[in-house]
Amino acid sequence: MNFRIDDEKTNNLIHDALHNNLTHLEKCDIDDCFDGEYPKYFEADTIDKIVNYAKSANGKIKAMLLFARSDTTISEVQETIDALEPYCTKDCINNGKILVGCSLESDSQKSEEMKYRMLILVEK
Question: What does pTM read for this prediction?
Fold first, then answer.
């Protein structure tokens, strides 16, 4: 990775995105998405909490990795992306700066794990 990973939750998210994901992602995809900057980790169990987090950020979202539990429907993931779009930069939306993933198996998920886990980079 081009960015520093020093948080266990971030490490787990990146591991899942690369190795336990219905969508094929490579390390270079994540590197290119975040351009060597340091994204923040965020998790939530509802779309509203994610949107409120985006609203409260001091700037627009430049890049994000959104990872959903396997019991999340594709329509819920799309609804989340659609709800976040007004809080994203045009570059984020138009140039592949939104990476999405979903766990392979529900039984691999811990019951206390949030429905959505994210790495999010906000413009300064």
Answer: 0.86
CA distance 67 to 72: 10
26-37 mean pLDDT: 91
Q: What residue has token string 């811990």?
A: 110
Q: Which residues pair with 120 in a beta bridge?
A: 40, 64
- The answer to whether 100 and 18 have CB atoms below 8 angstroms apart is no
Contact 50, 116 (CB under 8 A): yes
- Ranges of beta strands (E only) in the chain are 40-44, 61-68, 98-102, 116-122
**Triad 62, 37, 61: Cα angle to 5°:** 15
